[in-house]
Amino acid sequence: MKTMLALAALLAPVPAYAQGMVTSADPRATEAGREILRAGGSAADAAMAMMIALTVVEPQSSGIGGGGFLLHQSAGGPLETIDGREKAPMAATPQRFLGPDGKPIPHVQAFPGGKSVGVPGNVRLAALANRKWGKLPWKALFAPAIRLAEGGYTVTRPMAAASTNLTPLWGGGRTAVAGPEGGTSTGTADKVGRFPQVAAMYSRGGKPLTEGERITNPTLAKLLRKIADEGPDAFYTGDNAKALVAAVTTAKVAPGDMTEADLAAYQAKERAPVCGSYRSYKVCGMGPPSSGATTVLQILGMLERFDLVKLGKDSPVAWHLIGEAMQLAYADRDKYLGDADFVDVPVAGLIDKGYIAKRSGLISQARALGTYQPGTPPGAQPRTAAPQHNEHGTTHFVAVDADGDIATMTSTIEMPFGSQLIANGYMLNNELTDFSLAPEKDGAPVANRVQPGKRPLSSMSPTIVYDASGAPVFTVGAAGGKTIIMQVAKAIVAHFDWKLPARDALGLGLVFFNKDGLVLEQGTSLPAMQPALEAMGHKVTVSKLGLKANAAEKTASGWVGAPDPRSVGTALKQ
Ligand code: GLU
């Protein structure tokens, strides 16, 4: 009998999640996550260790000087989310990014320097996640990152590229591309430089970093050790708070007004997830201050009545429909989304099936609409739309542990290298330029205007998809400003309608848009559809989009991670 039972146990199907896995946009961060899983850490522990390691090895994209959103699905338990989004200092006003003429300054002028820095949220987010779901002590989460910062790591292709793009802005022996007061400087080289610390750290005498060279970050290692030993308050109070405030307020470019009190008051917030359905699947993600889940659900909802499965991924009609749904959803996003702690955001109305059906009714299968106006969802207050901009400087990572818990997080410092300011070896975000730089439009206040203590609207869209039985089967998130929402929506269509494995779903080209019309991603199968899309009335351009997503799918043999084929990311089994 005993042997029979043992045999039965051997033959019983292994639960699909029996083994954990991790995936991120940087191989060293993925290894950090695996190390934590192997040490008995939970999915949340592994995700936080990756967040901290990414501060060291992918400093151009994210880190403890920034913020993020974490989705956590416990096996058989609830889906919970933590908002670690940056906040505006209490001294911030809606006029923060206006020039002397009362008009918003260009984004390229607004992002570098102290005024764009929001109060970072990632360390408080990590502490809350560790308190709620951690199996390992707080201190353990920092060990891989400290080792990387002390022992050194090699520069990746994306890091070298980010440094190449930005060294001219940093100054110090080279001509700057964008002066602090705007415009383009063509004058004599600025000897000291506008951003001496980042230039010292991530350039070589004003020359960009090269792929493969080695970097150490002992200052950051020291701080990480202190936070590991003393807890999150070592980031938000005391010496680090002083150093952060000094970096912001004494910046050579646009000195800011953050105070130690702003840092001490920061709290990560637990928020209700935003969920809806797409065909037989349930799709859940982050609510305000992210526009992610709301806009993803609008896009998918408008597409639901079309037979995308039959049309297939090579059909220009399919991409025309996706392009139409995208532009209608983004029109609503720009009008209604903002920090719901400050403005009324009609999330329920925006994802209401009846409202979405009405919006979808505007879409013709044969012809482009041409103009894409916001609608009036149930519960909406009168509001104006915000002007748009694009940006890049984010990362997404996923951990699944042996219990089947899932932690999936998008983390950001907004632009590559954020505000270009450094405190204690970590980059400071420029998240406040995710606010609408214009406080009002057509005489009415904009939902996403700067206000003291408010969180800027985000596009970050960490998402989990569940099958009809309610089991999680797919998770995805991305970097790339507003393209994030579209990358996530496209990955879901490609995976569930077109049956592409997660990695191929990410690798499939993207359609986005600018003020002129559709933009098709260069180097993919999409540009071949340009003539057909033009024949449907679209204005079309082809461009590089600089995308970077990350996903994981549940297969018969367990969870499989999917880094973006465009990235240097990796996935590892526990
Ligand atoms: N800061 C952006 C957001 O939260 C993301 C920036 C990017 O990915 O480039 O929406």
Structure at a glance:
Belongs to the gamma-glutamyltransferase family. With 574 residues, the chain is an alpha+beta fold.
Describe the structure.
Pfam families: G_glu_transpept. Keywords: Acyltransferase, Hydrolase, Signal, Transferase, Zymogen. The chain has 574 residues and is of the alpha+beta class. The protein has two domains: 14-98 and 110-151 and 218-246 and 257-272 and 387-574, Gamma-glutamyltranspeptidase, small (S) subunit (Glutamine Phosphoribosylpyrophosphate, subunit 1, domain 1); 157-215, no CATH class. 34% of the residues lie in helices and 18% in strands. It has 20 helices and 24 strands. The strands form seven sheets. It has a seven-stranded antiparallel beta sheet with strand order 8-3-2-12-11-1-24, with helices on one face. A six-stranded antiparallel beta sheet has the order 9-10-17-18-22-23. Strands 19-20-21 form a three-stranded mixed beta sheet. α3 (43-57) runs antiparallel to α5 (122-133). The chain is globular and about 60 Å long. The protein starts with a helix and ends with a strand. The model is unreliable at 13-17, 174-190 and 387-391 (pLDDT under 50). The structure holds glutamic acid. Glutamic acid is lined by residues 391-394, 412, 414, 431, 434, 458-460, 479-481, 484.
